[in-house]
Amino acid sequence: AGRAVQQALMPARAPVVPGWDIWMYTRSANEVGGDLVDYVPIDAAQTAVVLADVAGKGLSAALLTAKLQATLRALVGECGSLARLGECVNQIMYRDGVRGRFATLVWLGLNTADGGVRVLNAGHMPPLVVSPTGVEPLPRGSMALGMVPAAAFTEQAVRLDAGDVIVAYSDGVTEMMNASREFFGEQRLRDLLAAQRGRDAAVIGQTVVEAVSTFAAGTPAHDDVSLVVARRLPS
Predict the structure, then answer these.
(1) What is the per-residue DSSP string for 119-155?
(2) What are the beta bridge partners of residue 113?
(3) pTM for this one?
(4) What are the residues whose beta carbons fall under 8 Å from the beta carbon of 46, sequence distance 6 or more?
(5) How far apart are CA 93 and CA 133, in angstroms?
(6) In angstroms, what CA-CA distances link 82 with 130, 151, 207?
(7) Kind plus residue range of the DSSP H or E element containing 70
(8) For the packed helices 185-195 and 201-216, what is the interaxial angle rounded to 10 degrees?
């Protein structure tokens, strides 16, 4: 029952955003998960895609995930900047959360006109940008949400050219283990993304998910696997 509710709260499909090709995916390791994949229309010029990871597993993490999703959607129209959005969400997650529990977050605000991306990274692995020059991470972000009552957050910005791709992922991707207890790792992910440049977002995303599953070779997953792929389309 909890799984059905959690799936109903998350989008059934990726958003249709002018100028962008978007693919979103999440798979929980248990009946319910602590990863959030969502999108939030901001205005005619911008749509945000979101990937978050609540510490812990099972029902407690799933409840906090729902709390985080509702908080983001409620506050996005009231905060003048992503830095302020991070501050507001952090205060609420700390006030209403469980001590020792926190959430990491990547917010990608996709501009429909010029390929600009506004980024809020709260304690998460930096998104990867795939371009003709290679695969590079964005700068590291601020601290995770809900750890301390007052924390400062910063907004990053990047501009993608036609064909460039930005990828956000949960640690369930890079920390997937095989029978030898070896991690999939970030380098495998970077190499895989570099080889997929020029393909549709769905093809890129599905290739990553299949590669992670093949690497695990039936070893039970210990964490949720989530992925967001956004490719800039030609004008």
Answers:
(1) EEEEBSPPPEEEETTEEEEPPP-BPPBTSSSS----E
(2) none
(3) 0.93
(4) 109, 110, 111, 112, 118
(5) 39
(6) 23, 13, 31
(7) helix 58-75
(8) 140
Residue 31 carries which side chain, given as an amino acid letter? E
The answer to whether 131 and 170 are in contact (CB under 8 A) is no
Residue 22: name the closest of 199, 234, 232 by CA: 232
Q: What is the pLDDT along the chain (235 residues), one digit of tens a residue?
A: 766 676 766 787 899 999 999 999 998 866 667 889 999 999 889 999 999 999 877 777 888 888 999 999 999 988 889 999 999 999 999 988 777 789 999 999 999 999 999 999 999 999 999 999 999 999 999 999 999 998 999 999 999 999 999 999 999 999 999 988 999 999 999 999 999 999 999 999 999 999 999 998 888 777 889 999 999 999 7
CB-based contact 98:61 (threshold 8 Å): no
Going across the sheet that includes 116-122, the strands are: 35-43, 46-54, 103-111, 116-122, 155-159
> What are 167's two structure tokens?
């990828």
Q: Please, what is the Cα angle at 106 between 173 and 203, to 5 degrees?
A: 50
Burial of 78 (0-12, 13-18, 19+ CB in 10 A): exposed
Number of helices and strands in the chain (H, E)? 6, 10
Contact 156, 141 (CB under 8 A): yes
Q: What is the token pair recorded at 137?
A: 């991470």
Cα–Cα distance for residue pair 173/53, rounded to 1 Å: 12
